Amino acid sequence: MSLLASLSLEAQFTTTFAKNAPEAQEDGIFYYLPRNVIRLEFMVEETEYYIGPYAEFASKLMGTSDYIKENKKEYSIKSVDLQLVNEIDPNAAYFISFDEKSKEPLLNIILDDDGLILSIGYEHEPVKPRVMRTSFMDNALNLNENQEVSFIEILDNEIELEDDDDEEEGRASKKITKEDKAKYALEKIKNARNAYMDLVTGDQDVSGDNSLPFMLDNLKSIENEYVSLFKGKIVKNTYYKVFYFAPEENQVNASVSIAKLSSTDGIVELGGKGDIIKIQFESKNSLANINPLSDDTKNASLVNRIFYRIPAESDVKVLVGNNVMAEKQLTISQFGIIRTMSIKNNKVLFDPNTGQIISVIR
Questions:
Q1: What gap in Å lies between CA 303 and CA 261, rounded to an integer?
Q2: Which structural domain, as residue segments, surrounds residue 45?
Q3: Does 180 map to a domain?
Q4: How far apart are CA 315 and CA 266, in angstroms?
Q5: Does a structural domain hold residue 201?
Q6: Are residues 149 and 233 in contact, defined by beta-carbon separation less than 8 angstroms?
Q7: Given strand 323-342, what is the order of strands in its sheet?
Q8: 197 in a domain, yes or no?
Q9: Running along the chain, 362 residues long, what does each successive block of 10 average in pLDDT?
Q10: What is the b/e burial string over 297-310, where b = at least 16 CB atoms within 10 angstroms of the residue's CB?
Q11: pTM here?
């Protein structure tokens, strides 16, 4: 933030809703109150399924129906994080005009680069931080590096076929089929399992106590690699997807759809297929005893008064289908009310994230 306007004002001034400011009025400044934007950070898990080269023999040779039958991707949301950022509210813009004839002491009005009001009567910019979108990194970064998927290659010269007594001498050797390779892989699985059991039961001597865990892990790894030739492989990758949503004043107790989760394509636009992702608001009714301004007052020109905001609390939920993925209590400015106060000869400090007055010094 920087000092955009540090203007010496007569204490006699008029504040008007920006749309009602006189066109010919030049001696004045525009300022904004902030509105809150919800930053939704989805942690998405992508699961890739790869068919094993010998999947067609899994049932026949391994006696199992538990194997991957098609190459595909599936997506799920693991978690959702909610954070508030802010921006200027285009519906809360005001114009301050000055009385050139006034002889009252002067005040300073400090705005930031966007025209957001920070303080009145202070000589220096307040230090309270403003949380903006640039406070976060919004790149959809992978949490895991994409893994290269490969299967053990079985070569023809690794396989020894049984001799055929009826085969004529000098005839070309029997052609090795895909099923022959699958049977060879099955033998490798059996050998790895037998060797594993020999080590566990002590039938196989091991030199040195420290080598046993290493040998067991190695045999299990070999077994899993050959099993994957039949059952296939599963690779998981996790990444972030970020959305920004600015609640409207009339959504204080609403449920709003923002996207969809497709099991095959991840997070997609609302027009796509999948479970609806929605954000749900439930008012805490914390401002029930504070009367809002009337429409006449909102549109009036107020002398020596300024508009500020009282934010409201809301329970915020993020649902994917009917499942609640996140729930948090947030203070949302635009769900609150706008009021006015006299600032003649006062030093006023505003919260840059809500537009609320947080300090008044007379």
A1: 52
A2: 5-145+237-361
A3: no
A4: 27
A5: no
A6: yes
A7: 266-268, 255-262, 275-283, 305-320, 323-342
A8: no
A9: 45 84 77 96 96 97 95 96 96 87 72 93 82 83 73 90 56 79 95 89 66 88 96 94 94 95 94 94 86 88 91 96 96 94 86 94 84
A10: eeebebebbbbbbb
A11: 0.82
